[in-house]
Recover the amino acids of this structure.
């Protein structure tokens, strides 16, 4: 039961994504103006796509004309490794308006060559492993049930996760590759955490805008544009739009599956304290010496 995975160069990929993954590696040519949004699934991809799209296109669409009001963020900002592109071996992505924005779940080492050869920017967002795991388990279970499939029990999926077996994982390797890439080249990779954006999204909208070379003017700040972008892209706003309640992304999932709760610390409603401790121990062990830490609870619930 569950999705079949294949391991390649140290990472696990869903079998159906494997050909596109190889094609991206082989053929994708980054342009200097490209912006690549890199994530493990369920780490804030949808949110980051919406925010980045709004920042980059704010002179083209006003907030009340935003394509995000009528299309899911994954339609507006596609994944690099989707079959849509790679059905032919080497598709022409030249016609896409620049700056091109793509999402990807590929590990940094898979993008290395193309990224290094150009001036393009990569923004990575990750999320604490407990919430990422629980969010992904819900996502897969919902999609499996819709296909009349047989979703993995949460205990079994958790055990696999702890052994490093999860889509585009091991979790730690994916996160640490981007973390180290950011340390080596902070001009190339901006490293964000879902929990930080939950605490102060306007601060990170500004950081993203500066990083990709689209800083807000004082005038725009005074007009409240940053707050307007935050509101448009908020969980409550996006999840309540008709387009995100129905509809499906071509060849992919229901738009609604990208919006569940959007909270920090929801894992505690699904995992036992012992499971929480197991991940805390793994975290200590795997991230030791890296300087990377995750918050697994809302800031307000800290003692
Ligand atoms: P939960 O399942 O915990 O609710 P991704 O976008 O990487 O697929 O991740 C999906 C997770 O992000 C889901 O988490 C989803 O609810 C949450 N999410 C989606 N849009 C969001 C938004 N605009 N703001 C905050 N969280 C969002």
């Amino acid at each position: 039961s569950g999705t079949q995975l294949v391991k390649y160069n140290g990472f696990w990929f869903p079998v159906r994504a494997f050909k596109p993954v190889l094609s991206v590696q082989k053929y994708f040519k980054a342009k200097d103006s490209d912006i690549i949004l890199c994530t493990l699934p369920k780490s804030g991809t949808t949110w980051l796509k919406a925010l980045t799209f709004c920042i980059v296109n704010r002179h083209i669409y006003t907030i009340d004309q935003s394509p995000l009001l009528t299309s899911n963020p994954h339609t507006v900002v596609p994944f690099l490794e989707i079959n849509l592109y790679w059905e032919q071996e080497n598709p022409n992505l030249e016609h896409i308006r620049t700056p091109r924005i793509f999402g990807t779940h590929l590990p940094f080492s898979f993008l290395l060559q193309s990224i290094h050869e150009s001036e393009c920017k990569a923004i990575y967002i990750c999320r604490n492993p407990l919430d990422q795991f629980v969010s992904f388990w819900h996502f897969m279970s919902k999609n499996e049930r819709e296909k009349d499939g047989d979703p993995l029990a949460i205990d079994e999926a958790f055990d696999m996760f702890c052994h490093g077996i999860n889509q585009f994982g091991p979790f730690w390797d994916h996160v640490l590759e981007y973390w180290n890439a950011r340390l080596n080249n902070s001009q190339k990779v901006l490293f964000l955490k879902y929990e930080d954006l939950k605490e102060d999204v306007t601060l990170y909208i500004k950081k993203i805008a500066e990083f990709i070379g689209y800083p807000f003017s004082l005038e725009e700040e005074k007009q409240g544009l940053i707050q307007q972008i935050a509101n448009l892209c908020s969980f409550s706003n996006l999840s309540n739009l008709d387009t995100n309640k129905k509809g499906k992304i071509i060849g992919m999932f229901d738009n609604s599956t990208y919006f569940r709760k959007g909270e920090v610390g929801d894992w505690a409603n699904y995992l036992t304290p012992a499971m929480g401790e197991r991940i805390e121990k793994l975290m200590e062990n795997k991230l030791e010496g890296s300087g990377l830490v995750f918050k697994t609870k809302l800031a307000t619930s800290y003692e």
Remarks:
- The chain has a mean pLDDT of 92.
- Residues 249 and 293 are 34 Å apart (CA to CA).
- Residues 129-146 form the longest helix (18 residues).
- Residues 39, 41-47, 131, 135, 138, 233-235, 238, 258-262, 266 surround adenosine-3'-5'-diphosphate (CB under 6 Å).
